Amino acid sequence: MPSDSKTDEQIQRDVLAELMWDSRIQPNEIRVSAKNGIVALSGHVDSFYKKWTAEEAALRVRGVAAVVNELEVRLPSSSERTDEEIAAAAVRAIEADTLLGAKNLQITVDKGWITLHGEVDWNFQKEDAEQLLRRLWGVKGVTNLITVKSRPTTMELKDKIEKALLRTAKLDARKISIDVQGAKVSLNGTVRSWAERADAERTAWLAPGVNQVDNRLQVSYTA
């Protein structure tokens, strides 16, 4: 049973309501089940972007411990593209993005599935590249193998992250501890929601030189 005592039936209803609330999703073809706080999404959607957005919406619901995303992407005939067409669209999207246009990223496409390779200076650039390609018509999935360049780090990096967490109004940073080993940051402690957990990880990724974040934060709805 989730720590805030919501029943699985309540969680199921709330996830369905959140899917209806998010205008990016058409939830008619999405089925939701819940057991011990673990939500399973099944059925089909007409784009990879909607599959990812549905998972994101479910994780926003209080009481959800994890999401199993079994949604199938079924493209309408009007959205079908060859791999060559998808690759060309992906290259254009990357080149047009002001954060990524100058980066030498490699794109491969196999049966509608895009794989990204290359190296960037910041993690937000890696995330931006994936988010861009998720939205393209015809894409069935994205594997992001882009790496973030390492930079020398010191205890000053830990101090910068701690101060950044304290500045974030959405977080109770006093319950978060940080460990820095080279370019790897580990987050430990408790947060009050999955959204807070994601915010803490996002803050750590924004620090210069970070190329790995081990998010061990536990969600405690009574924290």
Count of DSSP strands: 13
Q: What separation lies between the terminal Cα atoms?
A: 17 Å
Write the element-wise H/E pattern from the N-terminal end onward: HEEHEEHEEEHEEHEEHEE
- Major beta-sheet overview: 4 strands, mixed
Radius of gyration: 19 Å
User: Helix/strand/pairing class, anyone?
Assistant: alpha/beta
Shape field: flat
- Please tell me the overall pLDDT: 87
Helix proportion of residues, in percent?
25-40%
What fraction of residues sit in β-strands? 25-35%
Q: What ranges have pLDDT less than 50 throughout 5 or more consecutive residues?
A: none
Please tell me about this protein's structure:
The protein has 223 residues and is α/β, with parallel strands linked by helices. It is 35% helix and 26% strand. The model has no long low-confidence stretch (mean pLDDT 87).
What is the gist of this entry?
With 223 residues, this protein is an alpha/beta fold. Helix content is 35%, strand content 26%. It has helices at residues 8-21, 48-59, 83-96, 123-134, 155-167, 194-205, and strands at residues 30-35, 38-45, 66-69, 72-73, 106-110, 113-117, 119-120, 141-144, 147-148, 176-181, 184-191, 212-215, 218-219.
